Amino acid sequence: MKNCITPIFLVLFVFVFTACKNDIKKEQVQDDTATDSIYSNIDDVVEEDYEPGDEEIREFGIIETIEDGGYPFFVVTVNFVERNIKHDFNLNIEAIDMDMEELATLTDQWATIYYTADIENFLYDLQFKGESVFGEYAPEKTDPSWKKIIGVLSGAAEVTAGDLPDTVTVTSEEGTTLNFDIFIDAETVKANGNQVTAFYEVRGVNTITHLQPAED
After folding, report:
1. Which domain of life is it from (predicted)?
2. The pTM of the whole model exceeds 0.70
């Protein structure tokens, strides 16, 4: 009888040991599968965030209108609903990571706007020998509120070749130097190196550096 019981216990021991070993392997496979699942999907949930520069400002609002300012420039009007104010922003489409089709879809949409706020000299008229070099684009009359500087024009030796304006400088006899961003034409080139009168205004300019549409 004793000899019969011993083989039975051996069979039971082998069965239990094998079952436990299989369970351990099964748990290891399940754990490994779960780990693979987490890491295989991590690229789907982690997005690269935009890192603004030190001088960039971030706001959140509704893009109401996008007006063509002559490629590659646009004027974007943003409604900051919480503050009940609207602002116009300059946008150079070639300076941001977005094409014109994407930009067009943002009208009436919420978005995060990154921009810089600068002060610039906006040139209304540039006169050489008493005549405006702007031709048909010259203002009909001079506004009394405009500032004026008389001095030598420099930086206008060649006609603007691309889509972006060039920077010209007017230097007065007292040494005051003012820069203006303009598109240089043939008439402006003629005035280069000569005394001119510049009528301008100092104003704030907000320029968009990045647009991030709000997620649905």
Report:
1. Bacteria
2. no
Q: State the CATH number of the domain containing residue 136.
A: 2.40.50
What is the structure's pLDDT at 53? 86
Its domain, for residue 164, covers: 120-203
Domain count, the chain: 2
User: Average per-residue pLDDT in the chain?
Assistant: 83
Q: Is 144 found in the same domain as 110? A: no
Q: Write out residues in the chain with pLDDT < 70, as ranges.
A: 1-48, 216
